[in-house]
Amino acid sequence: MERYYQPEIECAPREEIVRMQNEKLVKQIRRVWDVVPYYRKKMQEKGVTPDDIKSIDDIHKLPFLSKADLREAYPYGLLAKPLKDCVRIQSTSGTTGKRVVAFYTQHDIDLWEECCARAIVAAGGTNEDVCQVSYGYGLFTGGPGLNGGSHKVGCLTVPTSSGNTERQIMFIMDLQATILCCTPSYAAYLGETMKEMGYGPDDIPLKAGIFGAEAWSEEMRRDIEKTLGIKAYDIYGLTEISGPGVSFECSEQHGMHINEDHFYAEIIDPDTGEVLPEGQQGELVFTCLDKEAFPMIRYRTRDICVLTREKCSCGRTHVRMRKPQGRTDDMLIIRGVNVFPSQIETVLLNQGYAPNYQIVVDRVNNTDTLEVLVEMTPEMFTDNLGDIADRQAKLGAGLLSMLGIKAKVSLVAPKSITRSEGKAVRVIDRRKI
Ligand code: DLL
């Protein structure tokens, strides 16, 4: 087990981490300049050459890379290794335009799986564990990443992929699975279903969950932990940078340690591109220090986040990122007010609802409207219209105080909102702007 807890790296003194980052960055920039004409051109346009990059402190001189660059260079324009050295692609779901296709050499796969192994070990995983991977397999990075990490740790890996909830539960119970990896919304659904089947937290063999790929609140964490009787750990990542395991929570469950020996993180002002000091909220930007095939340099994630180097009592020294607060692009602007779905979720869960909701935004007579459809739990389900109206008013007041704008609340019957097996679709934006 101890093989993937790597204290010499994960708990290295700051100077050692910086030394390693300096060395890797200088090499990486020289290499992409030499082999990727797209990067060379972008650097030339900004008037910077590899000679200007002597240490990590010079990183701000380099141009940013955005999703638009990935689209322009699609599919092979950012490849930094010959195809004969690449062994895999993974891809995003591509809901907004062209899919991102990321390439991996065997070295890149090993590096990625090692990051996932660190996450599993940080959640208490050892080779004694049975780890059920219920993230989707295939082009999505969730299944393959955690599958590889679980193998490296030596867990008995159960590659169920997503979907077929009854079969998931059968395997959890029959094989006595101890670790569950899936999206938090699917974990909540599995919990809800198991509860209906009569399983209490003490009947369920799971001890830990590794949940990520979408935003989830602390309240949702507490709910899932209670229903499944586990400790629920957050894991973050994105296809462009490798997949899950770019960062992960330790036993403190207080921010996710970024694997800084591979990925250098910055927070920038999304409007000006200026690098912000530690502790300030802004857009998260990553540079891959030693990936070979698809080394993103200063890639703008659009995730809104805060970094901290405060000491963590787990002993790891790698910088921590707070749960992403949303994305610069899924942040809803409603009547001029920035609204994050996670804020709405917090209000619902605080008032005892399950995380089964949908946010519908529209524009009527040039005014934005916000409606939140919320499922009643089976316990609160009633046909007493007075009760329903009271509940709706209470939720409306909670939302107003959290968001600063009015929302229409519609309570709907249990099970009437479609469940997701992967990332939940929370927002329907009907505005044609
Ligand atoms: O979602 C990779 C992943 C798989 C992460 C499994 C964790 C677990 P993409 O499909 O490329 O990759 O989506 C990346 O998802 O930029 C965030 O906006 C969001 N995201 C990922 N993890 C978290 C998290 C995978 N823990 C995009 N909390 C990212 C909040 C997350 N948002």
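qc> The chain is about 30% helix and 25% strand.
qc> done
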